[in-house]
Design a protein that fits this description.
With 212 residues, the chain is α/β, with parallel strands linked by helices. The protein has one domain: Rossmann fold (3-Layer(aba) Sandwich), CATH 3.40.50. It is built from 8 helices and 8 strands, in the order αααββαβαβαβαβββα. Strand 1 and strand 2 form a beta hairpin.
């Protein structure tokens, strides 16, 4: 792990910009969320149409989703897939996965049930958060995925844009420690030339990529 105070960042100027924006290179994503809540809970993070979401809203929504994931058996080290197009709930879910110390496996919302099942086996995915998608019959689509003969996915949470998590009660989850060099995200290659391959990324590399 790189100690930011001792070693700085790969680029000092960008490192200073990162610190001003609420993170340092040795933070996990969970640490970054806590830091933002401490420094600027009322700062606007997302605007969706006429609705404004501040850091405190995203933090609360992600805690609610984290509680639902814990209730379904997900936890530290679990591989939780997030499949959906960009949305406020996608952001909340991404943060929720990291709050419980799980690994976010990001899946393309254009994938078929068969393609999701293949990646679930390769990535040992046990939970699926299914968000904004072009799929019309979501129930039928998901029933093809939660099939023990086809994939290891045992539970699905609907995080589509019509779901309002901010109106749900919060549930407690174990407070786990996460580090900047822990694997926090897995993405898959397209598999167009063969079997899809998973690429593991740490928070450090996400910060480095965001600053470059």
């Amino acid at each position: 792990m790189i100690d930011n105070q001792e070693h700085g960042s790969p680029n000092d100027q960008k490192g200073r910009a990162g610190r001003e924006n609420g993170f340092t290179w040795n933070m996990s994503i969970k640490d970054m969320i806590r830091n933002r809540m401490r420094k600027c809970p009322d700062r606007i993070l997302v605007k969706a149409g006429q609705t404004v979401y501040r850091w405190r809203d995203i933090d609360r929504g992600s805690s609610i989703i984290a509680g639902e994931l814990c209730a379904l058996g997900a936890g530290y080290g679990s591989h939780v897939a997030l499949c959906g197009a960009n949305s406020v709930n996608w952001i909340m879910t991404f943060f929720a996965i990291h709050k419980i110390g799980a690994i976010a496996v990001l899946l393309n919302p254009q994938l078929t049930p068969e393609e999701i099942a293949v990646r679930a086996k390769l990535g040992a995915i046990t939970h699926l958060c299914f968000g904004k998608s072009p799929v019309r019959d979501r129930k039928h689509f998901l029933s093809q995925i939660v099939d023990p003969e086809r994939s290891p996915i045992k539970a699905v949470i609907d995080v589509g844009e019509k779901v309002d998590f901010l109106n749900r009660p919060e549930a407690e989850c174990p407070d786990v420690q996460t580090l900047s060099d822990d694997t926090c995200v897995i993405i898959f290659t397209s598999g167009s030339t063969g079997t899809p391959k998973g690429v593991m990324l740490s928070a450090f590399y996400l910060w480095f990529g965001a600053q470059n």
